[in-house]
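Sequence in, structure out.
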Amino acid sequence: MARPATGTVVEREGVRGRSYALRFRVGGKRQFEVLGRSPEWDRKKAEQALTDRLAQVRLGIWKPQRPERVEVAPADRSVHVFASAWFERRGHEVSERTREHWLWALSNHLLVVLGETPVGEIGPEEIDTFKRVKLSEGALSPGSVNKALRVLAMIIDDAIAYGIHAGPNPCRGRLLKTSKPRRTWLEPDEAGALIDAAGHHRALLAVQILGGLRIGEVINLRWRSVDLSRAKLTVEASKTDAGRREIDLSPSLLDELKLHRAGATYDGPNDLVFATKNGTHRARGNISKQILRPAIRAANVTREEAGLPLLPVGITNHSLRRSYASLLYEAGANPAYVMSQMGHTNSGLALEIYAKKMEVQRDTGQRMDALVRPDWNGTGETIEFVDVQVGAGAA
């Protein structure tokens, strides 16, 4: 027996008014019919149209919508039409993660507000409207609004190249002001506390803290890439060429991985190291919600009972990767080695962490005083300085 017809009214707010469409099923197949926008259409009228369509389906007289073919001038192509074609053209050139980001920006934000606007008419006013609407909703931070606008900027770049938009790109120079993100990482005692608080997930956090893997690299890591006899881990799939690398396993991380494999259900060469109970990939969001956050809470309880400071606020999976760089510097590694182990081509992050670790390790204030009065330390006593060496080639 065929499924009964069911459906919903789709309602979207855009810069040119509120638009309405129908989404319903016929014999189990999804159908989508665009009705129009206000003021010609409203919610009540759209609901009546849905009732009519479902009645037609039940009587067996419904026919798919076949609008007359209308030649659309290039400049009149809507953002929705042009962006959909752009995604089809460009989607194969980027990673799955990037495609997911583009779909997030388009489906959840850009097309909801600007979807019906002709792409050739997108200007500063439409960009400012998008920013105002998104900020007023309160769901996106200024940084996230900017991420969506960067996707729109790429789309309009193509529209300009194809002669559909006259240019210049209205997204350029109109991003929202954002504060510099506060980068967090763990000190050695904090890192150990978090691993200890992770229970049977301790190896997953350890490979980030003591191995520096990105969360995507953790999810995709397979046992064939872990050489326990040589204490090496090979990152095969990464977002950059430099990201494909061989990591030296510390004795503690090696022990954690050995214990993890001994208790793993899936331990074949092609099995995922951190598989779900069904042997599949873990979801990024679930690692944060189900593993990292509970471990942070547990570690804080233990530290509070011991009278120790709580872990830094805002710890994320990427904080654990930064902690790896910090720990390497603490252990005496030089920036070049840290970059190679982390899979970086840009030295920015590695050197930022390096500089901050050196500020802590060097008595900067006393050194400054000594430059002014070499024989004085504030008490009249002569002081002597010893350089802190951080690996071969360190400054």
